[in-house]
Amino acid sequence: RQAQPAMAAKILLVVGIALGVLAATSSLWMPKKLQIGLSLLGWRGLLNVTRESIGTRVLGLKATPSREAWHRLVDTLSNFDTKYLVPDRGAVSEDAIAEGHLYGLHLLTTAVELFAHHDHLHPDFRMALSPWRKWWGDNPDVLYLHCLVHADQAYIVRGRLTGEVYYSLSVYSTPLPGQYAVASLGNLNGKDIVTAADGSFEIIVSHERPDGAVNWLKLETGFLSLISRHYFEDATPAALDVTRVRVTIDLLDGPAPYSPPNDELMAARLAAIERFVRDHSFDRPPFNPAQSPAWYSFVPNVIGTPEMHQQTHGAKTGGLGADDIAYSAGPWLLAADEALLIEGVLPECSFANVVLWNQFLQTLNYANPRPVPAAATRAYYPISLNRAQLKNVSASREYTIVLAHKDPGPDYNWLYTEGRERGTLFYRFVLPTTELTAPRTRVVKFADLNKA
User: Quick one: average pLDDT of 396-416?
Assistant: First the structure.
C-alpha cells in the first residue's frame, strides 16, 4: 500500500511527459486541420468540440433558445407565403404574388434593422422606412426613425431641425417588441417643443418628469416604441436623403455596459423579428369596412372625408398614425384608356400631400430616376404630390390632379399609376386649421382630358 502513491506519481509523470511529447511533436503526427484547431482552441477546447460533435451525431443538434427562435422565424417566412399571399388577401395574379414576396423581404429587412442589433438598454434611432424598405403606409416626403424603449428607463433625445415643416416625437405601446402598435400614448410636435435659436432641442422621455425638464414625453408601462417624424415639402422626395435628419437618443444617466450577445438576448431579438413579420402580415385581420375609419373609402374612385387620427384611431384601433394628422384615402380602379380627375381644396395646415400605394400599402416607385430628355436635374416618377410640387393652385387653395397611366403633359398635376389598374390614394394633412373636405372625383377618358 505504501508503494501505491509512489507508483501513481510515477504513472502521472510518465503520462504527463507523454502528453507533453505529443503536444510538442503534434506537427509531426497530427493532421493539419487538427493542428489549427489545437492552436486556436487548446486541448480543452478541442476536446469540447469533439465531445459536442459526437453528441450531435448521436442526439441531434443542441436545443437552445436562439435556435428555437430562429426556427420560428423560418416557419413564419414560410407561413407568409402560404397564409398571406392568398386570394382572400388579394394575391391573385402571378405579379401580385411576386410583389407580395418583395413586401415580405421589406418586412424582414426592416425587422432586422430595427431589432437585430439594439435593445431598450442601448437605444439608437434606426430608419424605419426607406425607398427600399416600405411597409404599412410609407411617405416619400417623410423620414421616420424608430427606437425601442422601456418605461423602466429614462432617455434623452437630442436633435436639430434642418428645414422640416413638421417634426414630432410619438410614443406607442407594443405588448412585446416587434408586435403591432396597439395604442398611441403621447406626442410632441414642433409647436410643443422648445428649441434653441439654431433649431436644436432636447426632449426627456421617461415615466416621471425630472425636475427642470423643458421638453418631456411620458412613458407608460412596458415595452414602447418611439417614432421620430421629419416632414419636408421639397421638389424631390425627402426620403431619398437620410443624411438631412439630425436626431439621437441616449439613456439619461449615461450608457449601459455593453456585453456581446448571449443566447437569451439573441433569442429575444429573433423573437422580435419574427413577431414583426407575422404581426404585419398574416396575423393581421383583412380590412373590414365595418371596422375601418370613415375617412377610408372602399368605393372605387371615391376618396373619404379627412378626419384627425385621434378622432378615429387612438388607443382603440392602434397603428402608428400621429394624433395631429388628418388622413383620407380611397381606391382607384381605371381601365387602360381612363384617367381620374381629382378636384379639391387644401386646408390651411403645416403639411399636405397625396401618395399612391399598392395593395400592400407600399408607395409606388419614387427612387429610380425618370428618363426625361434634356433634364437639368434628376426627375422622379410622380407617385406623390406635396404643396411644393402642385401647380396652378388657386388663391383659395383649389387644385386639380390627374391620376393616369401615362403623362398628360406639363400643364397637369400628374400622379402616375405605373399602369396599375387598381391601387390606393392616400392623403395626409398635418395640423389643419381650416375645414377638411373630401375631394371630388370623376373618371374620364384619357383622350378627353382637354375637354374635361
Answer: 96
Does residue 232 or residue 285 have the better pLDDT? 232
Cell numbers at residue 429, please?
A: 394633412
Count of CA atoms in the C-beta half-sphere (13 A) of 18: 6
What's the distance, CA 261 to chain centroid? Answer: 23
Q: What whole-number distance in Å separates Cα of residue 66 and Cα of residue 275?
A: 14
8 Å CB contact between 143 and 238: yes
The strand ranges marked E within 334-432 are 338-345, 351-357, 384-386, 398-404, 414-416, 422-430
- Contact of 366 with 380, CB cutoff 8 Å: yes
- Alpha-carbon distance of 410 to 378, in angstroms, equals 16
From CA 151, how far away is CA 170, in angstroms rounded? 14
Q: Which residues pair with 402 in a beta bridge?
A: 341, 414
Helix axes 94-115, 263-279, angle to 10 degrees: 150
What is the per-residue pLDDT for 315? Answer: 37
Report whether 282 contacts 267 (CB < 8 A).
no
- Cell 383659395 locates to 396
- Grid cell, residue 435, equals 375645414
- How far is residue 318's CA from residue 180's CA, in Å, rounded to a whole number? 8
Instruction: For 156-171, write each residue's pLDDT tens digit.
Output: 999 999 999 999 999 9
* pLDDT tens string 294-351: 899 999 999 999 999 865 544 344 567 778 999 999 999 999 999 999 999 999 999 9
